[in-house]
Amino acid sequence: MWQAAATTLLDTARIVLGTTRGGKWMDRETWWWNPEVQAAVSKKKASFKNWQQTKQQPDCEQYLEAKRAVKQIIATAKIAHYQDLYNKLDPKEGENAVYHLVHARNGATEDIQRVKTIKGPDGVPLQKDNDIRDRWGEYYKNLLNEENPREPCNEVPPVLSPIHAITRVEVENALHKMKVGKAVGPNGIPAEAWKVCGNTSIIWLTVLFNKILESGKMPDAWRSSMIVPIYKKKGDVQQCSSYRGIKLMSHTMKLWVRVIDAQLRAASEVASNQFGFIPGCSTTDAIFALRMLMEKHREKQQPLHLAFIDMEKAYDRVPRDLIWWALRKKQVPEQYVSIIQDMYSGAQATVRTQCGDTRAQPVTVGVHQGSALSPYLFITVLDVVCQDLLEPAPWTMLYADDVVLCARNQGDLERKLQKWKDRLHQHGLQINTAKTEYMAAGPNTANHNTIHLDAAQSPE
């Protein structure tokens, strides 16, 4: 069902819309160029040549008149272009265009935007295309399949309650939340293709998603993704570690994931300490609560000690067995667990390099990057793992994988931090001590510069 529809949709789009290779760059000095400007400039050039040949005053006046006309036409063309640009930037969809303009302007000023040559594990630059592709493939194979040591999860009995079928309203809401102008995955079908099809696509997608719900198997084409390395703008440009991999997935799979994400959120909940990726909550709320806590302690002349925990590659390192265990601990119906397991079964990725694409590599650890469901899966894991360590907000607050711990003295804070470190380590998650920060506020805290976690110190 999926393969036939995908082929038809792509073939029709090629016939109606055509194809483009991208990468075309227009000179920033001639973005306003159009046929009218070209005709006026050609007339001015001809008038100038004629005047140079005759040296007559009438020909000089004709050239000056043509020159004034060109300036007027160019000014009109620029105004029209800016007006068209403002109209494109005005709606919500124009946000993407704004970012593209900013990135283009910023990229034009960079000395290095991309390189072909990359260094091997021994630090020696690689020259051959095959060697470069193999190096990228090896790097991401290790990065995406590395799991930290952990204790095995205990058995949790499944919840065998039924789940309701997917409705057209759910599909329509999920499609409405899909952003336009995003890079597509390997199958090449963007979310815009489903949006322009209107009600027809809603009906067809509802049927498709319900068939997946019944069978528990999504199309195999959705299991492939593409990783595009983007330079972090710091570090050695020839080191793979200086690049951030952006994963491009099937937009239709992302739509399917959004539908399941909405149902999963309705079937479960997380602690009120979590402010990340929860409707109605934001960093603004957490920051306000933290400021109020600090102000109250300042008014009463009492010290306050805070630790800001940073987790090491949290989304990339979370064990998948831990995800299924946490969902069952949350009493999530087993059919949802099986559906989510299928989303990760057989997942593989290729890396797009300057020398071509690498061979597909399996991805066996972590959650999908760019998936609407991934943040909720992670915060569910964190909620279950650290459930007994959570204190009422604002003494413990979380924004996804960022955690703030508060205490009235340094010793209590160190004990809290050590408990969090041990608990996370027990389940295969690690605290990044180099990026974990400590802050002391209030009277008699001038000498509190660091806190201790095992043998390491976190700076103030």
- Which spans have pLDDT < 50 for at least 5 consecutive residues? none
Range of strand content: 5-15%
The rounded Rg comes to: 29 Å
User: How many helices?
Assistant: 15
Query: What is the average of the pLDDT values?
Result: 89
Number of strands: 13
SSE class: alpha+beta
- How would a crystallographer describe the biggest sheet? 5 strands, mixed
Assembly type of the shown chains?
single chain
Order of helices and strands: HHHHEEHHHHEEHHEHHHEEEHEEHEEE
Bin the helical content: 40-55%
Shape, please? globular
Query: What gap, in angstroms, lies between the N and C termini?
Result: 58 Å
Organism: Plectus sambesii
Pfam families: RVT_1
InterPro entries: DNA/RNA_pol_sf, Rev_trsase/Diguanyl_cyclase, RT_dom
Protein name: Reverse transcriptase domain-containing protein
Written overview of the protein:
The structure is a single chain. The chain is an alpha+beta fold and 460 residues long. The protein has 15 helices and 13 strands. It has helices at residues 2-17, 35-54, 57-89, 94-108, 129-143, 168-177, 191-196, 199-215, 251-267, 283-299, 314-317, 320-329, 334-344, 374-385, 410-426, and strands spanning 118-119, 125-126, 224-231, 243-248, 304-310, 348-353, 356-357, 361-362, 396-399, 402-407, 437-441, 450-453, 456-459. The strands form four sheets. Strands 3, 4, 6, 7 and 8 form a five-stranded mixed β-sheet that branches. It has a four-stranded antiparallel β-sheet with strand order 9-10-5-11, with helices on both faces. A two-stranded antiparallel sheet has the order 1-2. β1 (118-119) and β2 (125-126) form a beta hairpin. α6 crosses α8 (199-215), α6 (168-177) packs across α9 and α12 (320-329) crosses α14 (374-385). It is globular. It starts with a helix and ends with a strand. The model has no long low-confidence stretch (mean pLDDT 89).
